[in-house]
Design a protein that fits this description.
Elements lengths: L1 H12 L4 E3 L2 E5 L3 E6 L5 E6 L4 E2 L12 E4 L3 E3 L6 E6 L6 E7 L10 E8 L5 E9 L6 E9 L9 E4 L5 E3 L2 H6 L7 E6 L7 E5 L5 E6 L7 E8 L3 E8 L10 E3 L4 E6 L3 H12 L3 H4 L10 H5 L2 E6 L6 H11 L3 E6 L20 H13 L3 E5 L4 E3 L3 H5 L17 E2 L7 E4 L5 H18 L3 E4 L22 H16 L7 E5 L11 E3 L5 H5 L5 E2 L2 H6 L4 E3 L32 H13 L5 E3 L5 H4 L1 H16 L1 H4 L3 E2 L4 E3 L2 E8 L11 E8 L1 E7 L5 E7 L8 E5 H4 L4 E8 L2 E9 L2 E4 L8 E8 L1
Parallel strand pairs: 22-23, 22-33, 23-24, 24-28, 28-29, 29-30, 30-32
Antiparallel strand pairs: 1-2, 2-3, 3-4, 4-5, 6-7, 6-12, 8-9, 9-10, 10-11, 11-20, 11-21, 12-19, 13-14, 13-16, 14-31, 15-18, 16-17, 17-21, 18-19, 25-27, 26-27, 34-38, 35-40, 36-37, 38-39, 39-44, 40-43, 41-42, 41-44
Helix pairs in contact: 9-10, 13-15
Length: about 750
């Protein structure tokens, strides 16, 4: 009898379907799912280690999916006359739903089928959906799965890989709506969402992990939205290719992954990394393949200046002489057209071809290389070339067949159109301009602005699938390959893109990661930057970029004179210097190549303290490339150090006379730190202080999580060299470096 009872218990543990009244449940050792069999409502997603149900229970249910049908409006399970829920057969725990009887004249036999399976030894479930007998009716969007009425826990934090990454500790407040209707926010992928995942963590409870296992990079979006006073909901939106709907059945070509996890955003990133680094884009990354130009990986510091060469190349040469290491330029406003107005009429350069070439050759002779700006999807709709080349034919169209103008320039209000990456016309146009800049002018690389983004185009004359699919990334792959083929005689240019995106790893040499200075462009909006993308893909690309500047923004000389500032590049008040230190410290410890915007040689005297800090970090980064360029990020150390309230500035490139500077204050930890593992197994902690006072922070690492031995030596690496400063032992490694005012170093941990 005891043996029989044990077998029953084992069956439940391994996920055999159970029926208790009208409740059908399946489980593995980590998760339990339950469904109301009569209604098909999903009512339980329980973490078995804590017994916590992440759903709100049967009183807070909602539709598991929603279809948006062209011409028929939204369709949900409530429109079905019949629903059946059954356990899946076989050893894998799972359930199948089938909804039918929707009463649609165009597709009377329409049936929607969803399945969920549980991994046998992980707190992970896989969700799939198919639409049968849709009669060719166009499905615009599929919302699935909809994780509704998430049960509230203490200390909730939502981490979103929006390019580099950001996190909020008030996800419910952000979607509450402030007395109006609940708010909703969507992150498109591939694009601003750089990874296919979300992570909702809690202080003492289980976190909720939401992802897709889509190696093709199909178009989709992740959404966060509210409901009621404290409601919190998550869902994924899937955009089928219209061409795929000619078949009688549409099946999602990948699964949604939903599970629980312990810890914070890094723990979720580590789970995603285990899958992501085995995907085609990671295996083909240019840095891993050794294809990134050597001058890029050798760059110790980037100067991000704008305008003709005397204001860009001359300052970079001066800074390189001060630093004693290679400096490269990230060059905007070199082109003959006004910024955010006259694209793509970049040529000839605004200072003239001969003067541009001569200045660039002089800089290159001193080992200063230039990455020049060329937006990879915008065409100014008021330019002569827009009309002469009938470019409107090849612009992105919405479902109604219209172009949606984009206005970035607040002074001229000039509209731009996004060009479709699925058209050979646009790819040939852009590749031709890039080749002229590289071969004709002699630049070293092209910064392809707005590269890590994609759009949906519905123009049937372009020859690509309409709406969803992978044609945008396939087009970008062709574009990058064409540029490199045209430029092969000089060895090929470095190609950089704005933001981060896993799909672009095989095509770009650099990614501009600006969240390190998020406060400067976004202000206090409830989100804080985190290195989410870095934790997954560091060592697969070169990351650089920073809005960090000591001045007001520059003003394009080709913009209207009436909006120009009275004093161009006016120095900011010194009270914002700690913001400068914060931005540079984040970039350093997160493994980015340091970047300085709006540099002028006079700042070496007028802002010597700030620049000394930056140059120290640049020397440290250059001396620790096995960790900070090629290394893998480890779990962040627990840092015990003072925090301080400091002045912050929010600035726009369009400040001018109309705008200006917005001030606010934020409490910021005065020590930044991150842990790294090199390819040879070495471990180091990058540490930077923002304080003008000496500090002795405490940094704690879990030895097992970092792959450390139980005992070893601690070495301090700084621009003066490497020296032994102590030892470590035990399960928890505790480091207490003595940091001088605004000090920085690496603490390297080695076996005895």
């Amino acid at each position: 009898m005891k043996r029989f009872a044990a077998l029953i218990a084992l069956g439940v543990l391994l996920g055999a379907g159970r029926v208790a009244g009208e409740i059908l449940s399946v489980a593995n050792p980590h998760l339990q799912l339950a469904v109301d069999r009569a209604s098909g409502q999903w009512i339980e997603f329980r973490d078995r280690a804590t017994a916590h149900n992440l759903l709100g229970g049967s009183a807070a249910t909602g539709p598991l999916w929603e279809l948006e049908l062209a011409g028929a409006g939204p369709l949900t399970p409530t429109n079905a006359r019949s629903v059946t829920v059954t356990p899946l057969r076989g050893k894998t725990p799972g359930l199948r739903w089938q909804w039918s009887g929707f009463g649609l004249a165009q597709s009377p036999e329409l049936c929607v089928e969803a399945t969920v399976t549980l991994e046998r030894h992980q707190p992970v479930s896989h969700w799939r959906l198919a639409v049968h007998h849709h009669g060719g009716q166009a499905i615009s969007v599929i919302h699935f799965p909809r994780v509704l009425h998430i049960a509230e826990q203490a200390g909730e934090r939502l981490a979103v890989p929006a390019w580099l990454g950001e996190e909020t500790d008030q996800p419910r407040a952000l979607v509450r709506g402030g007395g109006s209707k609940p708010q909703r926010r969507e992150w498109p992928y591939p694009g601003y969402l750089s990874l296919q995942c979300f992570a909702l963590s809690a202080t003492n409870g289980p976190g909720l992990y939401l992802a897709c296992d889509d190696p093709a990079g199909q178009r989709k979006a992740f959404a966060l939205f509210g409901g009621g006073d404290t409601g919190l909901n998550l869902e994924i939106l899937h955009y089928p290719e219209r061409d795929s709907l000619t078949r009688d059945t549409y099946t999602m070509p990948y699964a949604v992954v939903l599970g629980t996890f312990r810890g914070g955003w890094f723990d979720a990133a580590a789970r995603y990394r285990a899958w992501a680094t085995n995907q085609p884009w990671a295996r083909a990354s240019r840095l891993r393949q050794g294809q990134t130009p050597a001058w890029v990986t050798n760059t110790a510091l980037w100067v991000w200046n704008r305008g003709p060469s005397p204001g860009v190349l001359t300052p970079a040469v001066a800074l390189q002489q001060k630093l004693g290491l290679p400096v490269s330029v990230f060059w905007h406003w070199w082109h003959g057209c006004a910024y955010d107005h006259g694209f793509p009429e970049y040529l000839p350069p605004r200072e003239g071809t001969a003067a541009f070439q001569a200045a660039l050759q002089r800089a290159q002779a001193q080992d200063v290389h230039a990455l020049v700006y060329m937006n990879q999807r915008l065409w100014g709709m008021t330019t002569a070339s827009w009309t002469n080349q009938n470019a409107a034919r090849f612009a992105v169209k919405n479902p109604a067949g219209d172009i949606r103008p984009e206005v970035y320039n607040t002074f001229t209000k000039a509209p731009c159109a996004s060009m479709c990456m699925g058209t050979a016309f646009w790819r040939d146009t852009y590749a031709g301009l890039a080749a002229e800049a590289f071969l004709g002018l002699g630049v070293d690389g092209i910064y392809m602005d707005q590269a890590c983004s994609s759009l949906a185009c519905f123009d049937p004359t372009h020859g690509h699938p309409l709406g969803g699919g992978t044609y945008w990334m396939e087009g970008f792959q062709k574009l990058a390959a064409d540029i490199r083929q045209r430029c092969a005689t000089r060895g090929g240019p470095a190609l950089a893109g704005e933001g981060c995106g896993e799909n672009w790893l095989p095509h770009l040499d650099l990614m501009l990661a600006l969240q390190v200075s998020r406060e400067r462009y976004a202000g206090p909006d409830g989100w804080t930057p985190i290195p989410f993308f870095t934790a997954v893909y560091h060592g697969y690309n070169v990351y650089y970029g920073n809005y960090s500047s000591l001045t007001m923004p520059p003003y394009d000389e080709l913009w209207p004179a009436e909006f120009a500032p009275r004093e161009p590049l006016q120095l900011l008040d010194r009270k914002f210097s700690r913001q400068f230190y914060l931005e540079q410290a984040r970039a350093f410890v997160w493994g980015q190549q340091p970047t300085l915007a709006n540099f002028q040689p006079a700042q070496l005297q007028t802002r010597a303290e700030e620049l000394d800090y930056l140059l120290r970090l640049a020397r440290l980064h250059a001396g620790a490339r096995p960790y900070l360029l090629h290394g893998t990020m480890l779990p962040p150390p627990k840092v015990t150090a003072p925090s301080a309230e400091q002045d912050m500035s929010r600035l726009s490139i369009y400040a001018g006379q109309r705008g200006g500077l917005t001030e606010f204050r934020r409490t910021v930890p005065q020590v930044a730190a991150a842990a790294w593992r090199a390819a040879d197994g070495g471990v180091a902690v990058a540490v930077a202080s923002l304080s003008d006072q000496p500090l002795t922070p405490t940094l704690e690492l879990e030895a097992a999580a970092c792959g450390l031995p139980r005992r070893g030596r601690v070495y301090r690496l700084d621009p003066d060299g490497r020296r032994l400063i102590g030892t470590f032992q035990g399960k928890t490694v505790r480091l207490q470096p003595a940091l001088g005012p605004r000090d920085a170093c690496l603490l390297e941990l080695k076996r005895h």
